[in-house]
Amino acid sequence: MRVLAIVGALWVAVARAGTAAEMPADTGTNAPSVAVPASASMPIPKADIRKATSQIRRAWSSTAVCSDAVRCAVYFSSFGTALTFNDGALVPLAHEQRLSLSGHDCIQHARAALHEGNRALAVQWVMAAHLDDPLIRNWLADHPDAVLEGLRHFGD
């Protein structure tokens, strides 16, 4: 089922782009997300930004390391979704693991990824900080732009 969902999401992305030639050639996990002019993005609801910031703050204060080997060894790519940003960019999940990191460590990795320009990996690290709660993790996946804004404003 997961493969069908990803294939369907990719098909929608290709249909939106018009042709496959317009899609970025390199969708590797280490490649930064495609930069898009601000005019191409839709406004993000303030309530979504507040909720994302709240979840980031909650993970930031969690210093307990992930001790369940089965959960911590789950690759981000098994979260079961691709990220779709407001600018239309569709990015597959990275093949990375949380392993023995705390929620605090995940947010540090997210901030570093955002600083490097890798929007998708930044969101995925915030999602990884919430491995224990699939409802929150899925909400974060559905609102990647709010998560990015939350990371940008976190600590202000």
Structure description:
The chain has 156 residues and is an all-alpha fold. It has helices spanning 2-17, 46-60, 69-72, 103-115, 119-128, 134-142, 144-153, and strands spanning 83-84, 90-91. Helix content is 49%, strand content 3%. A two-stranded antiparallel ribbon has the order 1-2. A hairpin with a 5-residue loop joins strand 1 and strand 2. Helix 2 (46-60) packs across helix 4 (103-115), helix 4 (103-115) runs antiparallel to helix 5 and helix 5 (119-128) runs antiparallel to helix 6. The radius of gyration is 15 Å and the shape is globular. The N and C termini lie far apart (41 Å).
Q: Sum up the overall morphology in one term.
A: globular
Listing every helix as H and every strand as E from the N terminus to the C terminus, the arrangement reads: HHHEEHHHH
Helix content: 40-55%
Strand content: under 5%
Read across the widest sheet, the strand sequence of neighbours is: 1-2
Radius of gyration: 15 Å
How many E strands? Answer: 2
Distance, first to last CA: 41 Å
- Can you count the helices? 7
- Contiguous uncertain segments of 5+ residues: 1-5, 9-39
Summed over residues and divided by their number, the pLDDT gives a mean of: 77
How many domains make up the coordinates? 1
* Structural class designation: mainly alpha
Specify the biggest β-sheet.
2 strands, antiparallel
